[in-house]
Amino acid sequence: MEHDAPAAQATADMASQETRHGILIMLAGVMCIALIDPAAKYAARDLPVLQVVWGRYAFAVVTAIVLFRPSANPANWGLVRLPLQLLRAALLLSATAFNFLALRSLGLVENQAIVMLGPVVITAFSILLFRERTNLPIMAGLLAGLIGALVVIRPGGDVFKTGSMFAIGHVLSYAFYVLLSKRLLETDTALSLNMMAVFLPSAVLSVAVVPVWVWPKDLASWFSLASVGFVGGLGHFLLVLAHRHAPASTLAPLTYTQLCWALAAGLLIFQEIPALSTTIGALMIVASGAIILFCNRR
């Protein structure tokens, strides 16, 4: 028994160290994901939105090949349900397009606050479509998220009529993308989901972008266009890697640090100062997500 205690302590220390590594990797991944928006917003000042969306996927393909090192034969990726994979890729593409369109008129924090509704919407759809369990605290969290979104969006204002509608389209598209991803993982491999999500949109957009193509005017434009894809691809890779080191319940709250990066990028790059209503609404949305997360961990 005396020898068991040191062994148990060593095992606990190793698990704790693994979790810390997972947290650090997750924070880096979330930072990369958050940097997609300022890079896209900067690139879209001189380039068509369609071209910026192309950059998101074309350069992500390069990143995916380097990081995941997939087989040259897609048949070896573990792809089982192709029609649903096509639908999933289309949902992610539409989510990206909606997000970049929203950024044309919304500030980074304002857009990110609405995007943070994602976990709330996913929970609501899970309850409605898949009859997942619910209780009073979860319903309170959903209501708080809805109220927070209304505070940010300000129905009746000019923002609601333009950018916020695109941001809501992004949230809905991404919510269905996540729900479909969960179903596909029952049969298809994570590698196939990652590769198809970037290869299919890249192939379609490489044709669609030709009529509207505008050559970036300087190195900064090229850098921002490439960064949209590179940081996005790296970010998703780090998210996958983080979940190998720490449980999802520990990592999930860290996604809300995207708001901090959005605030910093908005101030430093675009000199954006979020309105008080945006700050209050964002805090309400974060609180609602935290309530739902806590209830689901119990």
Report on this structure:
The structure is a single chain. The chain has 298 residues and is mostly helical. The chain has one domain. The chain has helices spanning 4-43, 49-68, 82-102, 108-115, 118-130, 136-153, 158-161, 163-184, 190-208, 219-242, 248-251, 258-270, 276-297. The longest helix is centred in the N-terminal third of the chain and has 40 residues, at 4-43. The protein is globular and about 50 Å long. Keywords: Membrane, Transmembrane, Transmembrane helix. This is EamA domain-containing protein. InterPro entries: EamA_dom (IPR000620), EmrE-like (IPR037185).
CA-atom Rg in angstroms: 20 Å
Question: How many helices does DSSP assign?
Answer: 13
Overall geometry? globular
- What is the domain tally? 1
Q: Which spans of ≥5 residues are poorly predicted at pLDDT below 50?
A: none
| Main sheet overview | none
Q: How many β-strand stretches?
A: 0
Question: What proportion of the residues is helical, as a percent range?
Answer: over 70%
In whole angstroms, the N-to-C terminal distance is: 32 Å
Mean pLDDT: 83
Question: What's the helix-strand series?
Answer: HHHHHHHHHHHHH
Strand content: under 5%
Structural class by helix and strand composition: mainly alpha
Short description:
This protein has 298 residues and is mainly alpha-helical.
List keywords for this structure.
globular, 13 helices, 298 residues, mainly alpha, 77% helix
Give the topology.
Layout: H1 4-43, H2 49-68, H3 82-102, H4 108-115, H5 118-130, H6 136-153, H7 158-161, H8 163-184, H9 190-208, H10 219-242, H11 248-251, H12 258-270, H13 276-297
Helix pairs in contact: 1-10, 1-12, 2-3, 2-9, 2-10, 3-8, 3-9, 4-12, 4-13, 5-6, 5-8, 6-13
